Every structure is written in C-alpha cells, then in structure tokens.
Fold this protein.
Amino acid sequence: MKLEQAPCDLCGSTDVELVATLPDPERIAPGEFDVVLCRHCGLQFVNPRPDKSAIGACYPVSYYAYSGHQKTAQRPTLRKKIKAAIRSSRALSTMASYLPGVCAAAIDTPFEEDFNYWMPSGAILEVGCGSGGVLDIMQNNGWRTVGIEPSSEAALLAQANGHQIFVLGGDDEYPEGLTQQCFDLIYLSHSLEHMHFPSRSLKNLGCLLKRSTGRMVIEVPNAESLLTYLFGEVTPIYDVPRHLYFFSPDTLSAMLKKAGYHIESMRVFSRPNQFVRCFKSNTRRFSFVPWQLKADKNISSPEFLAAMKSLSKYAEQANLGAAIRVVVSRPD
C-alpha cells in the first residue's frame, strides 16, 4: 500500500507528536497507522496515510454507507399533503415561516434539531451520500437532490432512485456540471474526516452554497468525547485509515472560519448505543470465553441499557458528546 506524508491540513505545520499507533479495526489495511497531533493548532490526523489511489481498497464491501435500501410505499397522510402544498409555493412557505405549528414540518428532515426556523424546500447537495438514504428523505419533502459519492457502486444505487450523483471525492476537482449549480443546503454527515484535504473541500463547497440564505450542516466524530477518554482506540472515531482526521470543536471551528464560514450553531451529542458498542468491543479482548458470555449477558440487560442512557446524557451535559454537529453560512 502506497503511503504519503502530510502536513497539518489546518495550519500547514509539520511539528507533530504521536497520539497512538493503531491497526485497521476492519483488518483490511496491513500494518499499523500513526495518529499524530499538531503541536501548533491541535488537529489530530493520520500520518503517514494511504494516498488517494490506495484509500479505496481500505473500505470493506459491507461498509455501512454503501448498503442498499428500499423505499416503502406509503399512502400520503393529510399532514403530508398539506406540507407538500406549502412547500411547492413560495408565498405559502413565506407565510408558514411565521406559524410555529406549521414550522414543525421541518422535523421530517434528518437534522431537524439544528434548525429552529422554517426552511422551505430547495436544492440540497450531500457530500458522501452513500446509497442515498438521506437524499430519499429530502426528495420526498420536495427537495431537488444532488450527491457526491466516491463509491461507484453506492452511486448507482442512489442514481436509481432519481438523484443526480457525481462520482468523486469531496476534495476532488469538481466538474462543470456541479460548479454551475447553487444549493440552499449542503450536508456532510461523517464524511469530512474521510477526506485527504478537508480544508480544500470546505473552500470548494463554499462556492456552491447560496450566500446569506444557504446553510451547511456538518457532522463529525468528536476527538474530545467521553467515549474517547474512556475507551481510546476501541471507539469508532479511530477507524483508521478510513478516518484520516479527528476533529475537536476547537479545530473544526478554526477550519470553518479559515474557509470563510460563519458558525450559526454548534453542539455535541451522544447516543446510548455508542457506549454499548464500545463495551462490546472491549469484551472481545477476553480470551476466557465464560467471561465473554457473562459480559454479553450483562450488556444486554435492561438495567445496563438504562445506565448507558444516563451516561450518554451526562456526556452531552458535560460537552463531551461523541459527535459534533455544526450549522454554518456564508456571509454576503
């Protein structure tokens, strides 16, 4: 596998210190990979790393974002019919923005918790769209859907459901068919950390986002989470070498501001199943089978699951959630 050295993508420094040396948890890429921390700005990243020609071979065929999905035919409810009528009219959408009850229609989007205002349907670009699950939801809500996806197999699944898909990486050079478009919403869900040059991607996407009214929603794993501090390399964040960067709220904010974005909101959050998954991964280290069985039994108990809900809630309250979600815009 061809590896390359890389400077910090945030500040350009090569002054780093070693955080951890880790194997590929999927056991696809040979050897081990160094996770380093930039002494100048604090960004963590893999160095050296597989170059862009080699990274595709590090993704398993069963990678979760590439799985196929089926649309379920459902009879439209009265609520959905009313919402579709409102979204199809600019005048009605404007009036709806002043009606709190109607604005609740935004809960049909995958990121409803990040918008406390009405967002009429428009054009959405999802970067790293996989097989198009999120685009399906948005399409059903009246959005024009476009995606960027490096996996040609996953892209075909998304295209089959009527989405316009560009088969390329988020930090690749964008073709004319994409650069001539403008989007009301750009969505990156756990894709920025996979890119070789995330700062380049953010600059390129800024040219596609509508000024003032356009919004970008980004979600990445949190390198400074309770999961990281408790479980270290067992956490999903250290999925090397597929994850090339490990952001904290500070380093993500710095990269966004450097690319010219205005941060409207940022929050961290956790899910109980993330803690359950880490505990299960830890029990696999036991070579003594009876211990594994007893551990699995306890992890599956209702009492344990209730404790994980409390732990997840604490992580959010302590600003140590497992993921970071940020909404940004581009000023005029």
Q: What stands out?
A: Residues 302-317 form the longest helix (16 residues).
